[in-house]
Amino acid sequence: xxxxxxxxxxxxxxxxxxxxxxxxxxxxxxxxxxxxxxxxxxxxxxxxxxxxxxxxxxxxxxxxxxxxxxxxxxxxxxxxxxxxxxxxxxxxxxxxxxxxxxxxxxxxxxxxxxxxxxxxxxxxxxxxxxxxxxxxxxxxxxxxxxxxxxxxxxxxxxxxxxxxxxxxxxxxxxxxxxxxxxxxxxxxxxxxxxxxxxxxxxxxxxxxxxxxxxxxxxxxxxxxxxxxxxxxxxxxxxxxxxxxxxxxxxxxxxxxxxxxxxxxxxxxxxxxxxxxxxxxxxxxxxxxxxxxxxxxxxxxxxxxxxxxxxxxxxxxxxxxxxxxxxxxxxxxxxx
Amino acid sequence: xxxxxxxxxxxxxxxxxxxxxxxxxxxxxxxxxxxxxxxxxxxxxxxxxxxxxxxxxxxxxxxxxxxxxxxxxxxxxxxxxxxxxxxxxxxxxxxxxxxxxxxxxxxxxxxxxxxxxxxxxxxxxxxxxxxxxxxxxxxxxxxxxxxxxxxxxxxxxxxxxxxxxxxxxxxxxxxxxxxxxxxxxxxxxxxxxxxxxxxxxxxxxxxxxxxxxxxxxxxxxxxxxxxxxxxxxxxxxxxxxxxxxxxxxxxxxxxxxxxxxxxxxxxxxxxxxxxxxxxxxxxxxxxxxxxxxxxx
Lengths: 335, 296
Prior knowledge:
The complex is a heterodimer. Chain A has 15 helices and no strands.
C-alpha cells in the first residue's frame, strides 16, 4: 500500500509541473494581452508598456516562469487587478462555501442515487426500472443553469418556501465567521435558528448542483448491482436463507459500490465546474462566483490563479480517490 | 471494411453481415437510438431550414413589442428588445449545432491523431502524449473553456476551440486504449505476420476496428458541447454581438426577470434539454448497436 501511494505521489510531480507550465504559457503566448485587458481598448502604447513592466511581462520567459513558480511555492499568487486583494486569501476565504455546497450536492446525489440504483437493479425491466432510466437520462441532459433557474422560479418565487439566494439570512442572523462553513459557524455561535436557515439556503443550490451526479451515480449503481446480483456468493447468501436486507447491505452493495467510488472522484471535476454556474444563479459567495465575477471584470490574475488552484484541488481529490479505491480493492494495488 | 473478419464469420453463419449493416439493423430496434435519432434529425432540419421556419427576423425587434407573453402571433413571446423568442430559438439551433459539430470534429481529429501516435508508437511518444493528456484532464472542463475564451476573446470560433480543447484529451486517451487492446488481437498479429507494416497496419487493420467507440463518444461529446456552449453563453462569454441568438445567452439575458417573464428562460432551456437528450439517447443507442459483445 505504501509503495502504491508513493508511486501515485511521484506521478503527481510531472502533472503539477506541466499544469503550471501550461497555465503560465497560456497567458503569455496567446494573442490576448493581459495589459491590454486591464487597461481596455483605449490604452496608449506607453501605458501598456508600463503595465507590462509592472506585471513582469517584459522579461524573458524562463525568468518569468521561475518567478511564477517561486511565488507559487510561497503561496503568493499575486493580487486581484480589480480589488487588489490577495488571491490566495480570497480563495481560502471563499473555498469553504464551495465545499459546503458540494458536500450538500453529493449528499443529495449519493443519498438518492444509491438506493434508487439498487431498487432499479433489483426490479430490472419493470416499470420502476424504466422510469428510473428515463429520469436519469433527463437528469444528465438538464444543464445546471436551467435547472437552477427553474428551481428558483418554482420554489423561491412562485411558491416561496425556500430562500432564493445567499448562504443565510444576514438581517436576521449575525454569525461570526470562524471556519467560513456557514452551518458550522452557526453551531459554534450557538445559533440553532441560524443553522436551520443555513441548511434551508443549501437546498435549492444543492439540488441544482447534485442532479447530474445523482443521475450518473444511479446509473452506475444500477449497472454494478446487476453484475453483482449474478455472482455465486449472492446466490449462496440467498440460498442459506439470509434476510433480504442483510444480503443487500453485506453482499451486494459492499461489492457494487466500488465503481461508484471512482465516479465520485470524476464528479468532483464536474462539481467544481458546476459550482461556477450554481453559485452565480444562487448568489453563493464561493469560489465559483468569485471566478465568474473575475470573468465579468476581466480580472486575469484571479482567473489564472483560480483555474490553477481548482485544478490542483481536482488533482488531489483524484489522488485520494485512487488511493481509497486501491484500499477497497486489493487487486488494483498489485497490478 | 476489412474483409478478413467478414469472411471468417460467413463460414459459420448463414449470411455475412458487415459491422455497419449489422449496427444499423440493431439500431432500428433500439428505442433509445430511434428517439435520439429523431430528435437530432429534427434539430438538424430546423437548423438547415431556419430562414423558412422562423416566423420573424431573430435579430429585429421593436421596443414597443417587448415582453409580450406567448400568444398566437409570438408562440414563445418576445424578449426585452421585442425580438420573437421562437425565431431566436430556431436560428439558435444553427449556431448551437454549428459550434457543437465544429468543436467535436476538431476534438476528434486532433485527439485521435495524438491517440493513434501514442497507441501505435508506444515508448516515449506514448509517455509524452499521455502526460500531456493527464495535464489537460486535470483542469475541469468548463473551467478550461472559460479560461480559453477569456484569453482568446469572445467569438463563435473561440467557443468552438475552447470546447474542442476539452475533447482532445478524451479522444486521445480513448483511441490509444482501443489501439493497445487491438495490438494483441489475432487478426492484427496475423496481418503483421504476413508482412503488413507501418501506416497500412494502423490505417487498414486497426483504425477501422477502433472507430466504433470513437463514434459513440463523439455523439455523447456533442451533447456535452451543446451544454458547454450554452454555459459559456450563460456566463456572458457567448458571441460578442448581443443580437446573435444563442441559447445560453438567451437564458442569461432573462434570469433577472424570472418573476414576470419566466417563459423567456423556459423555452430556450427546453430547447437545450431536448437537443442534449437527443444526442445522449443516440449515443447510448449507438453504444449498444456497435458493441461487439452484444452482437449475435
